[in-house]
Write a structure and sequence with these properties.
mainly beta, 5-stranded antiparallel beta sheet, 3-stranded antiparallel beta sheet
């Protein structure tokens, strides 16, 4: 599944981050992740809002991460047919679910909008883990709605990016 995009993401982040950050000695389960979000290729699929990405651990406890619609290079994210990549960490490797939600009040105003997401992939090459959420759906900015993927899969990193077994 889009192996070349993910391989380029890994290469980009490895060159941007030349050394792996040390594990937190007080929390040895801290895991660094690369998150890629694929916006659908439909007219009107893009948004100009920030988003909330939430992971759920084995106790179903949520951890929410906020991602800006504007990149560090001052270009918009979450545009039609785009791949947007972020880095974040969790305190566990055992992820049991994920959700997405549009920020209702980006830029200090509420907007009625929707965003179409094909899939979300979070992977940790260091831990050899990958989680894929297949959304293939429109996400609205209802304050109470966290959209779950239609399918959520855990796999090894190589299987996730389509590297053949040797």
């Amino acid at each position: 599944m889009h192996a070349s995009i993910f391989l380029l993401s890994v290469i980009f982040f490895q060159s941007a981050q030349p050394q792996v950050p040390p594990k937190d000695p007080y929390n040895p389960r801290r895991t660094e992740w690369i998150l890629t979000i694929k916006t659908c290729d439909f007219n009107g699929a893009d948004i100009d809002q920030n988003i909330h990405f939430t992971t759920y651990d084995f106790q179903n406890l949520p951890n929410t991460y906020n991602f800006s619609q504007i990149s560090p290079w001052n270009t918009p994210r979450f545009q039609r047919d785009s791949y947007d990549t972020f880095m974040f960490h969790t305190n566990t490797q055992d992820i049991r679910g994920m959700t997405l939600r549009i920020d209702d009040e980006t830029f200090g105003r509420w907007r009625d909008c929707a965003w179409c997401v094909e899939w979300v992939m979070m992977f940790s090459p260091i831990e050899n883990l990958c989680y894929t959420g297949e959304f293939q759906s429109w996400i609205t900015n209802n304050k109470q709605t966290f959209t779950k993927p239609q399918r959520f899969v855990r796999s090894e990193f190589a299987d996730c990016i389509g590297v053949p077994n040797e």
